[in-house]
Specification:
heterodimer, A: 554 residues, alpha+beta, Sulfite Reductase Hemoprotein, domain 2, Sulfite Reductase Hemoprotein, domain 1, 5-stranded antiparallel β-sheet, 18 helices, B: 169 residues, alpha/beta, 8-stranded mixed β-sheet, 8 strands, globular
Chain lengths: 554, 169
């Protein structure tokens, strides 16, 4: 994990001081509401429906056990004793007092954390795969590159007031677990024919009102040019992005208007001026950052013996076997596993964790892992580097804290935004819908039989719950003051990314779970062998699903 | 007379800004809109240092043929960029281009709607003069120029990124 030196430390301390003086000026009436707004947003502070909300940055989803304990302490001292993991791997406090936020940031700074650029029209937290450094299909560890991008984007003097927010994701593996094609910039690590490391650059992906899949504008960018090339893209966007209409202000609209080819050419022209300039990365810097993410030291383990022992335990305990199937993956380091802690037990808003759970996660990461965890864009938490021989003990400990629900990647592992219960932008509630679905489908045998299904819920068009890329997506809409829910089918955030299609007219809240049940019935009746929900949908099309939900007269 | 923050010090502003072509133009220290300046440049050649020009945040200097001339900005003594709204970030890029691509050396001023909280970044992008609405607090606002003691990125005030200056590198 990256460790701050005195430069990094002084920078975030100075940021806290700057923000503290801004809050003071605002409270004294010297800074207007209008001027305070973008300033507080760039520090992650929203004023929400019920209270302010503070979004804390978790750079590329990586947290140490020390940071988890600090978050637990902060949530007790300044909030209601719980935090919320977001779909962009960050953490939110839902009930802080505005006056306390500078002190909260001071606490966070002591463990190398901050809230810089977690909101507002600027470059946001860079996200990546939760299995970085451990997955078997990894081409190259994306974390050093995420850290290099984090430093470049932090308080970038030219790009603090962009037309709209700007999100970057990095993918270092063959499978995509970062949804990089749905970001303003998607960076795919790759090697060229001569074995040199570089990147393929995609721009213009995104969800929201006009969902789009990113287009490739640079097939191979050698590694040393990453920052000058990013500077070029951002400069073009900053100068030519739409500033009149916030719904047309994301880079995807500019890319579409110009076409990806023209956009690529404009970036290329700008880049000719910056290429080989002082922002060109040095070998030393790349190596320096990489050392923070080098292997934490693995023991030589008899993987076969460990697997045999797991099989023996599987046979004895069906629930353990289920948990292994859904929540555990083998690492590339033999004998080790990465374990996903489900933050989606029934009856809890997806992604919410209490202070004592945070401390328990920290303890378990110390005891069973390498004192590090990762947050996922599916709003769960991963402990990596667990010896397979320790899995049974870890499972038992997780059960005690309610974090062993074996539902990762299943119907009940719902991605869900805070919705109308918290968010002032929402058109409809989303958490009660998620809960109703979890209650309806509480039979684990059935849920496991359905296999991989991504069900995503957003309370409005802003799509924080990624409904466009759910195999089943649910979008809350407002109709004359009433909450209705539009169902979409066939979205996917993988490398074969696709956007969901609207099934038909919106359903009332009470009809949503019944509608989902009909969709699942059609799937079960039509699937071939081990075919997934998405594959069945792609094969048979939307009609059969539509008929079942709305009746043949629809 | 209005005060302007120059190199961190509040001083009286002796420049006169012209908004439209029907306004009377004084003999010296006047600042023309970009289009008028371009016309003057095309008819009379480079400035003698007695006038400058100002650019609106939505004006694209890449389309201004006069700015592209290598000698055009050499003797220029004031370029001002107007922010119609403080959230309009285009002026930050315009400033860097003027400094880094067109090698402009004279005073580069930010005016219009800017707030003290932006001073550090504006300065990094090459601005060295600022007109702020809070005229009474100008000197105290100037402390924002040193909100941070360092920065990660390359910019006009620091042409080397932090990674080329870190102790360990």
């Amino acid at each position: 994990m990256y460790i701050y030196d005195h430069y990094d430390h002084s920078l975030i301390r100075e940021r806290v001081a700057q923000y503290r003086s801004q809050v003071t000026r605002y409270l004294d009436g010297q800074l207007s509401e209008e001027e305070f707004l973008p300033i507080r947003l760039q520090n992650g502070l929203y004023i929400q429906r019920l209270a302010p909300m503070l979004r804390i940055a978790v750079p590329y989803g990586l947290l140490s056990s020390r940071q988890l304990r600090k978050l637990a302490e902060v949530s007790r001292l300044y909030d209601k004793g719980y935090v919320h993991f977001t779909t962009r791997q960050n953490i939110q406090l839902n009930w802080p007092r505005l006056e306390d936020t500078p002190d909260i940031l001071e606490h966070l700074a002591s463990v190398e954390m901050h809230a810089i650029q977690t909101s507002g029209n600027c470059i946001r937290n860079t996200t990546t795969d939760q299995y970085s450094g451990v997955s078997r299909d990894e081409i190259e560890d994306p974390r050093p590159w995420c850290e290099i991008i984090r430093q470049w984007s932090t308080l970038h003097p030219e790009f603090a007031f962009l037309p709209r927010k700007f999100e970057i994701a990095v993918c270092g593996s063959t499978e995509d677990r970062a949804a990089f094609l749905l970001h303003d910039i998607g960076v795919q690590l790759k090697t060229n024919d001569s074995g040199e490391l570089g990147f393929e650059i995609f721009v213009g992906g995104g969800l929201g009102r006009t969902p789009m899949i990113g287009a490739s504008i640079k097939e191979f960018l050698p590694q040393q040019h990453l920052l000058t090339y990013l500077d070029s893209i951002l400069r073009i966007y900053n100068r030519y992005g739409n500033r009149q209409n916030k719904y047309k202000a994301r880079i995807k609209i500019l890319v579409k208007a110009w076409t990806p080819e023209v956009f690529a050419q404009r970036v290329e022209d700008e880049w000719q001026h910056l290429k080989e300039g002082p922002a060109t990365l040095t070998e030393r810097e790349i190596e320096r950052v990489k050392t923070f993410f080098s292997d934490p030291g693995y023991s030589v383990v008899d993987d076969d013996a460990a697997n045999r022992e797991l099989d023996r335990l599987r046979a004895q305990q069906r629930s353990f076997s289920r948990w292994l199937d859904r929540n555990v993956i083998d690492q590339k380091q033999l004998g080790y596993a990465a374990v996903t802690l489900s933050l989606k037990p029934m009856g809890v808003p997806p992604g919410d964790v209490t202070d004592s759970q945070l401390e328990a996660i920290a303890d378990l990461a110390d005891q069973f892992g390498k004192s590090e965890i990762r947050s996922t864009h599916n709003q769960n938490v991963v402990i990596t580097d667990v010896l397979k021989t320790d899995l049974f003990d870890l499972w038992q400990a997780l059960k005690k804290y309610g974090m062993a629900t074996p539902n990762i990647g299943t119907l009940t592992d719902i991605i869900c935004c805070p919705g109308g219960d918290y968010c002032s932008l929402a058109n409809a509630k989303s958490i009660p819908v998620a809960e109703a679905i979890q209650r309806k489908f509480d039979d684990l045998d059935y849920v496991h039989d359905l296999g991989d299904i991504e069900l995503n819920i957003s309370g409005c068009m802003n799509a924080c719950g990624h409904h466009h890329v759910g195999h089943i997506g649910i979008l809350g809409v407002d109709k004359k003051g009433e909450e209705w829910y539009q169902i979409q089918l066939g979205g996917s955030a993988s490398k074969s990314a696709s956007l969901g299609k609207v099934l038909g007219p919106s359903l009332a809240r009470g009809a949503v779970t019944g509608g989902i049940e009909s969709l699942l019935d059609v799937y079960v009746e039509n699937r071939l062998m081990d075919e997934s929900f998405l594959a069945t949908y792609r094969r048979i099309g939307i009609e059969k699903f539509k008929e079942r939900v709305y009746g043949s007269g629809a | 007379m209005a005060l302007v923050l120059k190199n961190g010090i509040a001083v009286e502003d002796n420049w006169h800004f012209i908004d439209t072509c029907d306004e009377p133009v004084p003999n010296d220290f006047y600042v023309l809109p970009l289009a008028m300046w371009q016309h003057q440049f095309e008819t009379h050649g480079p400035s003698d240092g007695t006038h400058g020009f100002w650019i609106n945040s939505d004006e694209d200097i890449s389309n201004c043929s006069a700015i592209q001339c290598s000698k055009a900005l050499e003797a220029e003594s004031l370029i001002a960029i107007k922010f119609s709204n403080f959230t309009d970030g285009r002026g930050f890029s315009t400033a860097r281009l003027l400094r880094e691509r067109y090698h402009y050396q004279g005073e580069l001023r930010a005016f219009g709607h800017i707030i003290r909280d932006q001073l550090f970044m504006l300065q990094r992008c090459g601005f060295d003069a600022f007109t702020l609405a809070e005229q009474d607090n100008l000197q105290s606002a100037s402390s924002a120029l040193s909100d941070f003691s360092n920065a990660y990125q390359v910019a006009v005030d620091q042409p080397l990124p932090l990674f080329r200056r870190r102790d360990s590198n």
